[in-house]
Design a protein that fits this description.
alpha/beta, 5 helices, 34% helix, Rossmann fold
Length: 195
């Protein structure tokens, strides 16, 4: 799906009682802190800084919603599993992620979960995967930052990730080298448009 227009809609927290969701199909991006969600979204949008990026893990603490082609939502959820945030903040962010997925479950056409290709899935990733599976949401796993690995290492990471996640759809991506971006676009088109 070619993205022609993107606009920022709003940032949402679990305490925001004024939230109004339009009945739009949605793509959700989740992953541990510093997995490259914002960078990937900017690449998909073909915008340098539409989605704010940070070198400091755990900075995003809201669900950030973008309107794509005046029709669909693409939403960047906070990163999970960053220990230095402290237990209370981590629990708040986990609650926000769960709340958002529950609120939007009937509109979600794809959950995109990013995994670092170099370090593979961590316990928090497997827990999130289990939660997404329990909700019955459609999932694509993105192996991020593959530009840091050799082809052999990428192949090994792909095989290990497919095994860890029971044969789920896995796409190896490098936002900096434009690898896997077109494949993701096709996956999103099929999810949103059915072709």
């Amino acid at each position: 799906m070619k993205i022609k227009e993107v606009s920022f809609v709003k940032s949402v927290t679990i305490n925001d009682n004024r939230v109004f969701f339009e009945n739009r199909d949605e793509i959700i991006f989740v992953g541990r802190s510093n997995m490259g969600k914002s960078t990937l979204m900017n690449k998909l949008f073909n915008k340098r800084d539409m989605v704010k990026t940070s070198a400091r893990p755990g900075k995003t603490k809201t669900a950030n919603i973008f309107l794509v082609n005046k029709k669909f939502y693409y939403t960047d959820l906070p990163g999970y599993g960053f220990a230095r945030l402290g237990k209370e903040v981590r629990e708040h962010l986990d609650a926000l992620i769960s709340w958002y997925l529950e609120e939007r479950r009937n509109n979600i056409k794809k959950v995109v979960m990013l995994i670092d290709a170099k370090i593979w899935a961590q316990e928090s990733d497997l827990e999130m995967f289990g939660y997404i599976q329990d909700m019955g949401l459609p999932l694509t796993i993105v192996l991020s930052k593959i530009d840091r690995l050799s082809k052999g290492e990428v192949d090994k990471s792909l095989a290990a990730t497919q095994k860890q996640f029971f044969g789920q759809q896995v796409v190896a991506v490098s936002s900096t080298k434009n690898k896997g971006i077109d494949e993701l676009g096709k996956i999103f088109r099929e999810a949103l448009l059915g072709n």
